[in-house]
Amino acid sequence: MSLLTIILNILLPPVAVFMKHGVGTTLLISIILTLIGWLPGVIHAFIVND
Fold first, then answer.
1. Is the whole-model pTM more than 0.85?
2. What is its subcellular localisation (predicted)?
3. Number of domains in the chain
C-alpha cells in the first residue's frame, strides 16, 4: 500500500476505494459508510484496499 493510498484512506475514503476498484458496489458501500460516520468509512477503505 502506497503512502498516497494511506493518506486518501484517512482523508477521503471513497476516493481511495474508487482509485482501487472503480465505480461499483464497493464504492457505494464506502460512500454510505462515510456519510454515516467518518470512522466506518476509513475502516472499510483500509479493509478493501488491503
1. yes
2. Membrane
3. 1
